[in-house]
Amino acid sequence: MGLVVQKYGGSSVADAExxxxxxxxxxxxxxxxxxxxxxxxxxxxxxxxxxxxAEQVSPMPAGRELDMLLTAGExxxxxxxxxxxxxxxxxxxxxxxxxxxVITDSVHNKARxxxxxxxxxxxxxxxxxxxxxxxxxxxxxxxxDITTLGRGGSDTTAVxxxxxxxxxxxxxxxxxxxxxxxxxxxxxxxxxxxxxSFEDMLELAASGSKVLLHRCVEYARRYNIPIHVxxxxxxxxxxxxxxxxxVRTTQQGEKQVEQALISGVAHDTSEAKVTVxxxxxxxxxxxxxxxxxxxxxxxxxxVVQNVSAASTGLTDISFTLPKTEGRKAIDALEKNKSGxxxxxxxxxxxxxxxxxxxxxxxxxxxxxxxxxxxxSDAGVNIELISTSEIRISxxxxxxxxxxxVRAVHSAFGLDSDSDEAVVYGGTxx
Length: 429
Fold this sequence. Notes:
Elements: E1 3-8, H1 16-31, E2 35-40, H2 46-57, H3 63-87, E3 92-95, E4 102-104, E5 113-116, H4 119-126, E6 130-134, E7 137-140, E8 146-148, H5 153-164, E9 169-174, E10 195-197, H6 198-206, H7 214-223, E11 227-231, E12 239-242, E13 247-249, E14 255-257, E15 264-268, E16 271-280, H8 285-295, E17 303-305, E18 314-322, H9 326-335, H10 337-340, E19 344-348, E20 351-357, H11 367-377, E21 384-388, E22 391-397, H12 401-411
Parallel strand pairs: 1-2, 1-9, 2-6, 3-6, 4-7, 9-11, 10-12
Antiparallel strand pairs: 4-5, 7-8, 11-12, 13-14, 15-20, 16-18, 16-19, 17-18, 20-22, 21-22
Helix pairs in contact: 1-3, 2-3, 5-7, 6-7, 11-12
């Protein structure tokens, strides 16, 4: 008997019919001889609706009370799903994040998991029950307050539980059939990937791929938990994310290792660009800028510093960050303007990032040239460039992103010859 952890996103449990469909899939896994733990998100857009409601009552709600409100969405889902499973003749027990032993730090709205002590979950499944756990939430180790994990929190909950329970696999159910070579909402000929390494998936997630979040993949890599990304709307095989390549046998009996040169093209239009103009080109200036940003608890992505002008000895430093943190970053830098000594700030939230990801890039010359040729042929202008061994990222105008993604996807032969990718829901989660 194996132990399987399954996670179902909001689009999978968006309504009563969706919950019944998910219940049947969970029961099938149980009937196949597995112990099953299911992690659920809030129904549909419930979390967004609760945030809107909170903002109507208070423009800046206290983090503790907002967490208390938002965790209600997952509690509704878990209870309804347990009811649906019992109606199918199987025993199910629902658990909140704290009841499941998800221990976090005390940062509200974006807490990090410190430990998982799943004693109650283990006891429940050993007694023959199906355990249903509310995702996205935990309990603070210090204050004992309810916390939420931020964007992608249910994925992280599922992987963390899988690691703590020593599960055989963590299945992430979403509204597409797996991980694709590009967002199928933008590239209709995107191809489903059968297997992808943790490293490539981490780069795709960090570059804007919405199927899995970076934190979830990093947790899985740390504890070597295989992830199977698949759709709750179909019975098709999805994408395996793991440390070891999938080996398939051809009809001729040959062994083939599925590891492509390029894993995919990701894009992200949720970032903004800040340019610090007229920075003295001397040691310590960049440190002052990014210490100010760090003290404001803002994560940055790409950084580019221009060559200083010989006549003035001044340079410009540009960096990207989430749009939601833009105002905070500008305010923090303006407050410390005299200490840093820059001339002015420029803010641009009409940008997009396109990233090409693949472990094979580091041993194949010409990839960079082909990437920039594809963008040039599409008439796309580049504002920033960032690279790693397995990734090339550029910043362009936001309006150019769809065309740029399609051009790069085609240039590297990633287009599928078969049917177009199916998107069963509308959000990608």
